Amino acid sequence: MYRGRIERDFALWVSKGLLSAPSAEAMLAEYDARESSFSVGRVLLTLAAVLLSAAVLLLVAANWETIPRIARVAGIGALIWIFYLSAALCLSRALNGIGAALLVMGTLTFGGAIALVGQMYHLSGDTVDAMLVWLAGACVATIVFRSGALAVVSGFLSWAVFGVLVMENKSTFEGNGVIYLVPLLCIIVIALVRYTGASRARHLAYLLMLGWLGWLYLEISEPLLAAVFFVVGFACFLAASLPVSPLHRLAREAGAAPSFYSFLLTIIGLAALHVELDGVGPNVAVSAVTLAVSLAGIGIAGRMNGAVRYLGYAVFAGETLYLASETLGSILGTSGFFLISGIVVALIAWIVIRLEKRLSAKPAVEGV
Amino acid sequence: MLTSRKPLIRPLFAAILVALLQTAVLGYMIESRASILRNGTDVVLKTIPVDPRDLLRGDYVILAYDISTIAPDKVIGGFPKEATDARMSVRLEKQPDGFWTVSEASFSPLPAKAGSVVARTQPIFYYPTPDAPQLAVRVDYGIERYYVPEGEGLVLEEARNASALSVTASVDDTGRMQIRLIAVDGKPLYEEPLY
């Protein structure tokens, strides 16, 4: 990924004499030393932590009848203490990788402990309640340890809550209302991500929000809701992507994600509108808007944001293929639509190329 | 972008705080059950057969009781007019044969009365059907699952389906229930210790 690309570019710049070889090496060394850079060892360590916690929990879950129940509970409680205390020991000696793995083990053990106590004491409680208690425990641990690894665990747990709600058919409007908490969970996870700096976990929160909106649309399949998705998504996209927007700085701190996911919501809204609306007039309108939105995405955010650019290309290509197969009224009508679209897009391209030339010429003039 | 950030408090304090909190949650789960067994009133309940294909899910036995079905004529105070997530209050009274059965039930709280206990059901999703005759209401009390060691579930299920299984449950003042004893043909098979 980025590491590979940057190494290739450095090699090119060194060979062209733009960059000295020692500087390039120093820059790469600095990148590799960053906490976020991918380390096979650290990933394996975390996976080992997950496996070990699972092993420990299953060992207890095997229902050892020979050991008294209270002793089993004490054993699980002791495991939680051992994991967190040894994590603290590692963290205070700057063994951050092992520390994070131990924190993950402690938090997973807590979840297993809830399930096991429920099983040993025949508490036929609600799975959703148990998941929420687990998530709350994970969030508290994330905050007090300020741990990125635990922020990731919290992100996955918020997904698990949503999954259990949907699978257990608890996700009804008249139900106990927990399904409405899901957007709140997204906000909590994003807050944890910003606080701990575990930037990659933010995708879990954005995807959860989109998943919840998808659920909402399945519950109320109305053109109005699809239109709301489109309008709100595009408004968020503009707010996150346009440099004049007051939210632009905040969104840029979060990387490519805010622009991309709001753009994705726009596209989901448009896709739903395709399904909802009938008749030539509405179809032509939605198709034209979809093509315009994909171009707007590429034009506004495409330069800095590869994800939006590729989604824009994919939507443009998909919409074109859809129109070619769908015939608007008559084949002649579709052909006319493409003719007009082609001329409009060519016109836009001409304007954009001129603008880009002017924009790229400007800094050079200023720099002199 | 992702640098090690300064922790909120020293790791040792954080560890103690988190472990203490999580142990407390587990302790609360155990103690809230124990308090029902310690302070509750015991009721003996008759179990009824469950669809045999839905018997053993994992390692627990599903129990259903004759008090799990509330006949419409037992319900006082009327039914909700709109679909809702509701709990019911169910008054249990002892019969001459020693088993406790439903004497009345309501969607609003029932007052305490000598010689009876009031149990609270788990939330049920109630959906009114105004044009159809009122059907019986299926409720749960939180005592429908009993975990057994691997392989021991079958005995209980056979006894349950032969209607030979009885369950003694404790009901506390707020109507929460917990299983105290499971008996086959009146002989205790599993007796639950407090902890």
Could you describe the 3D structure shown?
- The complex is a heterodimer of chains A (368) and B (195).
- By secondary structure, chain A is mostly helical.
- Among the domains of chain A are: 1-34; 222-368, no CATH class.
- Chain A contains 15 helices and no strands.
- The model of chain A is unreliable at 364-368 (pLDDT under 50).
- Chain B is an alpha+beta fold and 195 residues long.
- Chain B has one domain.
- Helix content of chain B is 19%, strand content 35%.
- Chain B is built from two helices and 16 strands.
- Chain B has helices at residues 11-39, 153-161, and strands at 41-48, 56-57, 60-62, 64-65, 69-70, 75-76, 84-86, 89-94, 100-106, 116-120, 124-126, 137-138, 145-147, 165-171, 177-184, 187-191.
- Chain B has a five-stranded antiparallel beta sheet with strand order 4-1-14-15-16.
- In chain B, a hairpin with a 5-residue loop joins strand 14 (165-171) and strand 15 (177-184).
- The termini of chain B are far apart.
- Residues 52-58 of chain B have low confidence and may be disordered.
- Chains A and B meet through helix 4, helix 5 and helix 6 of A and helix 1 and strand 13 of B.
Query: Given the structure, what is the number of helices of chain B?
Result: 2
Largest sheet of chain B: 5 strands, antiparallel
Terminal Cα span of chain A: 35 Å
The secondary-structure class of chain B comes to: alpha+beta
The number of E-state strands of chain B comes to 16
Query: What is the rounded Rg of chain B?
Result: 21 Å
Q: Biggest sheet of chain A: strands, sense, closure?
A: none
Question: Which regions of chain B contain 5 or more consecutive residues with pLDDT less than 50?
Answer: 52-58
Shape of chain A: flat
Order of helices and strands of chain B: HEEEEEEEEEEEEEHEEE
Helical content of chain B (DSSP H or I, runs of 4+):
10-25%
Question: What gross morphology of chain B would you assign?
Answer: globular
